[in-house]
Write a structure and sequence with these properties.
This protein is an alpha/beta fold. The protein is built from 14 helices and 13 strands. The protein has a 5-stranded mixed β-barrel. A 5-stranded parallel sheet has the order 7-6-8-9-10, with helices on both faces. β8, α6 and β9 form a beta-alpha-beta unit. α4 packs parallel to α8 and α5 runs parallel beside α6.
């Protein structure tokens, strides 16, 4: 719609900006192609700022998008990449600035290929095909190496020459296949499966020289990745150069930067191994020599001790101690025996002095009735009863008559009368 303006009735700048914004708001979303020349991703910000440039006309336009939109292609899109974006034009009235609000971003050409590879990578990683615990260890010295590579290629020559230079006795089972083009994937998969079925093959190397992203696409194919993951033989990936990283590198048990690096990492160097053996022998000899020296010094120290230098001295000291102990024991036992003999002699003298026989030697006698009982009281003896009188030197028979009889009071009054208890004790002691 045309505006009626003149030099006398101009429109204010703000009104013009507002009208332009209204016209632009009526535009729908459009697909725009361009090259990313500036990229700003501030940490924590929810919006990403881009600048798209058209190299043909040297025109640039600002693009904004939510972070989630850009994160979907962040792994394959960077500054310099060509992309197409689905965006709606926006007009910022205060500054009079046109920009695009993008809702979808797609890489173009190589970027699109990388985006598909990245999506496949995330899918296979989610299945655990790239997990570290699935990796198999390579043998120290493989006897037979399977090699999958192009026919008469530089990669084949690099692997064979470097491996045989390092270990001349190493053997190879080579499978020449197409390493790019439509036939590459089925041929490489078939060769890997054939080598994996051979029990004599210890390790498999898949090698190819450098190339463009399109040339290396077969080594990121899902069919090849799953075939390598299913192998029971360790697989080494040696594709391209150091910057190249096909998906085969992730699923293989070992990733080599180049085919030459693969030969060096799979086959040990005979010279280096001999040097290691020599160094180990020298370390072993030094260790054994050091241990022998230490043990010899310890043995010398032990032999220099008095117990080892003069082993009989300890026995002699113990012998002297035993002799002294024997002398002390003999003297002690002699003293004990002498004292016991003296005590026994004194006891015997006391027993003899106190025995009834000694008393009877002083003139006393013991009267016994016919049944052997001792007479203690005159009333126990009848008139005319015969009694046996025992004296120190024998015995004889007496008879009670009417004469004077010694009463019990007279017996008690005398200190030298032998009592019946003394007699009985004497009889028991002498066995009477």
């Amino acid at each position: 719609m045309a505006l009626n303006t003149s030099a006398d009735a101009p429109l204010p700048v703000g009104e013009v900006s507002r009208l332009i914004g209204g016209w632009i708001d009526r535009l729908g979303a459009v697909w725009v192609e361009g090259q990313i020349t500036q990229l700003s991703r501030r940490p924590g910000a929810g919006v990403v700022f881009l600048t798209l440039r058209d190299p043909s006309y040297d025109i640039s336009i600002s693009v904004t998008c939510y972070r989630a939109v850009f994160d979907a292609v962040a792994d394959v899109v960077s500054e310099g990449a060509r992309v197409v974006v689905l965006a709606k034009p926006e007009w910022y009235a205060p500054r009079g600035q046109l920009s695009l609000r993008a809702t979808e971003i797609k890489p173009v050409g190589v970027g699109e290929l990388l985006a598909r590879i990245e999506q496949l990578k995330k899918s296979l990683a989610g299945e655990g095909l790239f997990a570290a615990e699935r990796k198999k260890r390579l043998p120290f010295l493989p006897q037979l190496i399977g090699l999958v590579t192009g026919r008469a290629s530089a990669a084949e020559r690099d692997v064979l020459e470097n491996a045989q230079r390092r270990w001349p006795a190493v053997r190879f089972e080579v499978r020449n296949v197409a390493v790019q083009g439509v036939h590459a994937v089925p041929q490489v998969v078939q060769a890997v499966k054939e080598l994996d079925e051979l029990d004599a093959v210890d390790v498999i190397i898949v090698a190819r020289g450098g190339g463009s992203v399109e040339d290396l696409l077969p080594f990121s194919d899902e069919q090849l990745i799953r075939a390598v993951s299913a192998c029971r033989t360790p697989v080494v990936s040696a594709i391209g150069h150091e910057p190249d990283s096909p998906l085969l590198d992730l699923v293989a048990d070992l990733r080599a930067s180049t085919p030459t690096d693969a030969a060096k990492r799979v086959v040990p160097d005979v010279g280096e191994e001999l040097d290691r053996v020599r160094l180990m022998r020298e370390r072993a000899l030094r260790a054994v020599g050091t241990k022998l020296d230490r043990e010899e010094r310890g043995l010398a120290d032990a032999l220099s001790r008095p117990s080892m230098a003069h082993p009989h001295r300890m026995v002699e000291e113990r012998e002297q101690q035993i002799d002294a102990a024997l002398d002390r024991s003999r003297r002690t036992l002699g003293h004990l025996l002498d004292r016991a003999d003296s005590e026994l002699t004194h006891t015997l003298a006391r027993v003899v002095a106190l025995s009834p026989a000694a008393t009877m030697r002083r003139g006393y006698a013991v009267l016994q009735r016919g049944d052997g009982s001792v007479v203690r009281d005159q009333a126990e003896v009848a008139q005319g009863e015969a009694l046996r009188a025992r004296v120190a030197e024998g015995e004889f028979t007496v008879t009670r008559t009417d004469g004077d009889v010694l009463t019990s009071d007279d017996v008690q009054a005398s200190d030298d009368v032998l009592t019946s208890d003394d007699v009985q004790a004497s009889e028991e002691e002498n066995g009477a």
